Amino acid sequence: PSTGLFALNGIEDLTPAEMAAMYALWNGEKRMDLSEQFAGSSVRTAFPIRSNWIGVNLQRAFQNCRSLRRLDIDCYVTNMAFLCYGDVNVESVGYLNTYLISTQYQLDGVFVACYKLMTAFIKSLRHNLSFSDSPLLSFESLQYLVGNAINTSAITVTVAPDIYARLTDPAEPTWYALNEQAVARKIAFATV
């Protein structure tokens, strides 16, 4: 039976009004520069963002979207500063390839106040990044980050205190081993 609702990115109860709002915010002609495109909106998700090799500017793209729950991103990014800043309900953002990011500023404030964030797969990291407000971040997200980082000098990944405790506790052998792998790759985990 048809419910009249839509499904996208694992959210299965999107109303026609929500879909129309997402469509109205989506500018198909501006796909490589989505800076501030959805900022402050009430969307719970967005249409998938894809790019195989062209970089996408996601600076402040979803900043302060307090209803946002899931994003389906799989692209190279040129800037993701404050991407999900203030998105207190976001759970998943997808895959972000940071190969084209050249300065620390382009990674500032990405996940500030993302208290429910569980998955964020970051590839080609070579600058510092903070997940300090994300105590639910998955082991798999950090494992992917460490395994796919391309830094040649030391970088710091700041995590929530509970996650840091697991990474530095020999009684948590899987997490502890990930911390040792990170150290070998010049990645230091820290907490606030």
Task: Give a verbal description of the structure.
This protein is of the alpha/beta class and 192 residues long. The strands form 3 sheets. It has a 4-stranded parallel beta sheet. Strand 1 and strand 2 form a beta hairpin. Helix 2 packs parallel to helix 4. The longest helix has 12 residues. The protein starts with 5 loop residues before the first strand and ends with a strand. The mean pLDDT is 93.
What brief labels describe this structure?
9 strands; 26% strand; alpha/beta; 20% helix; four-stranded parallel beta sheet; three-stranded parallel beta sheet; 192 residues
Provide a quick synopsis of the model.
This protein has 192 residues and is an alpha/beta fold. The chain has helices at residues 16-25, 139-148, 161-167, 173-184, and strands at residues 6-8, 11-14, 49-57, 70-79, 92-97, 119-123, 129-131, 155-159, 187-191.
Strand/helix succession: EEHEEEEEHEHHE
Gyration radius, in Å: 17 Å
Mean pLDDT figure: 93
How many helical stretches?
Answer: 4
* Assembly state: single chain
